[in-house]
Amino acid sequence: MSVRLDATDRKILAELQVDASQSLDEIAKKVGSSKTPVWNRIRKMREAGVIRQNTVLLDAEALGLEACFFVLIRTSEHEAEWQQRFLSTLRARPEVLEAHRLAGDIDYILKVRVANARAYDSFYQALISEVKIHNVTALLSMEELKATTVLPV
């Protein structure tokens, strides 16, 4: 369900995506409004679920997490119990940054961030010990060409 946003809402969201630590005064100045209306708009967008959370972005490589793998998963299991166990397993693994259920030949794709190939193998071994999987293919990202959390508002 989409929420109706006007041009000012979109400008506020764009500013928050660039730097959510900006003061209300800074945001208001940049979007051509004043502090109280900006605060009210942000509050309404939080209540509507447009703004889910405030967070910080960390540099994975600076933290020693130098390997990014895209993991393609095919399964022959499609029962609700298996899906719930799989989802619980993914949620419990901090290495899994993203997980998507797909249409097509591949059932799921995971984005996994680890220190190195040995750490990926430990993740892989833990995954297959917890959940029955038909086929797993891991693709190592050689270079990140673009990564953003900024949505086109």
Automatic annotation (TrEMBL):
It comes from Pacificitalea manganoxidans. This is ArsR family transcriptional regulator. The keyword Transcription applies. The keyword DNA-binding applies. Keywords: DNA-binding, Transcription, Transcription regulation. GO terms for biological process: regulation of DNA-templated transcription; response to amino acid. PROSITE patterns: HTH_ASNC_1 (PS00519), HTH_ASNC_2 (PS50956). InterPro entries: ArsR-like_HTH, AsnC-type_HTH_dom, Dimeric_a/b-barrel, Tscrpt_reg_AsnC-like, Tscrpt_reg_AsnC/Lrp_C, Tscrpt_reg_HTH_AsnC-type_CS, WH-like_DNA-bd_sf, WH_DNA-bd_sf. GO terms for cellular component: cytosol. PANTHER family: DNA-BINDING TRANSCRIPTIONAL ACTIVATOR DECR (PTHR30154:SF17), LEUCINE-RESPONSIVE REGULATORY PROTEIN (PTHR30154). GO terms for molecular function: sequence-specific DNA binding.
